[in-house]
Design brief:
alpha/beta; two-stranded antiparallel sheet; globular
Length: 320
């Protein structure tokens, strides 16, 4: 039982016991029923690490709007576990940027499915900014976002192609992208702060919880097997080290810093996911593929185990 659920259950049991002890016995008076706690009004926002996206995190939820929210993503895991104790609006959307959360519409791409490569139901109409689904009386807003602001998908694709061209030698992806990272992080920092400002303006009394990114690359990148599509395919070892230290860790740093500046709560997934990267035996994230036969894309995302661990962290944060 999740901590949030168990705490409410214990509170309800204690209240019932107190009511029984204080009320008259027998026919003098009936014990007043203990009111059920009000459902926590929760809006879950974010990108594919929140939405789920990949087949390894279950089937798609309704509505099928191209955002690829899945049944085993952490918001849906907590919706299932907490039941009527939460009133969840999950509008996370794969491919979303911070601006798609607070300002601009997004045209979702759906979920890539082999052998076609693209979602057979695409193209999808634009979806509104995710903030539109946040009620003014929300109790809590969770948001996991930022990787797409840096162009993580494009970097991943290019690192694989460049690593293949160099046969695994050198740092061709670092050489291509390193000079552009300061500007990308500068824009992300500003947009992330603007997003948090907008969320606080929309739901003035809500607790805002930001969710970081887990360990994708192990501390020792040489653990990753060059050419393995179940890991990082043809990423070079040097580029994997660069991606961890120059992209992922600074990304979490921006999220943590802006969260602290806004006096919000940061869910730091990075420490506990060490040892569970794409290249570790007990991996909480799948690599480029989840499986070769049958062919299932993962595109370096948390699998069901990873999403379950994120749910545990978010559950603790919901307790405040």
């Amino acid at each position: 039982m999740p901590r949030f659920l168990s705490r409410l259950a214990v509170a309800g049991s204690a209240a019932a016991l107190a009511a029984g002890l204080l009320s008259p016995t027998g026919a003098q008076a009936a014990v007043k029923p203990v009111p059920r706690p009000a459902a926590l009004r929760w809006a879950a926002l974010g990108d594919s690490y929140t939405a789920g996206l990949i087949e390894a995190t279950g089937g798609l939820t309704d509505p099928r709007d191209g955002c690829a929210r899945t049944t085993l993503s952490y918001p849906e895991v907590l919706r299932r576990d907490l039941g009527s104790l939460v009133d969840l609006r999950n509008v996370s959307c794969s491919g979303a940027t911070t601006e798609n959360v607070y300002a601009t519409k997004q045209t979702p791409m759906g979920r890539p499915l082999p052998p076609l490569g693209t979602d057979p139901d695409a193209p999808y109409p634009p979806v509104p900014p995710q903030i539109d689904a946040v009620p003014p009386d929300a109790d809590v807003v969770t948001v996991g976002i930022g990787g797409n602001d840096l162009g993580f998908g494009g970097i991943l694709k290019d690192c694989i192609e460049l690593g293949a061209a160099t046969l695994g030698r050198g740092t061709p992806c670092k050489d291509k992208y390193d000079a552009s990272l300061p500007d990308r992080f500068h824009r992300l920092n500003g947009d992330y702060g603007d997003m948090l400002d907008a969320l606080h303006s929309k739901a003035r009394f809500a607790r805002v919880i930001t969710v970081g990114y887990p360990h994708l690359v192990p501390e020792d990148a040489s653990l990753c097997r060059y050419g393995d599509p179940l890991q990082f395919a043809t990423f070079t070892t040097g580029d994997l080290e660069w991606a961890r230290t120059a992209v992922l860790e600074p990304l979490n740093g921006v999220v943590a810093a802006q969260t602290a500046r806004h006096q919000d709560t940061f869910v730091d997934l990075y420490p506990d996911s060490a040892g569970h990267s794409v290249c570790d035996a007990d991996h909480w994230l799948d690599g480029v593929l989840t499986s070769v036969i049958p062919l299932k894309y993962a595109l370096v995302h948390p699998n069901a185990t990873g999403q379950a661990h994120i749910a545990e962290h978010v559950d603790r944060a919901l307790l405040g």
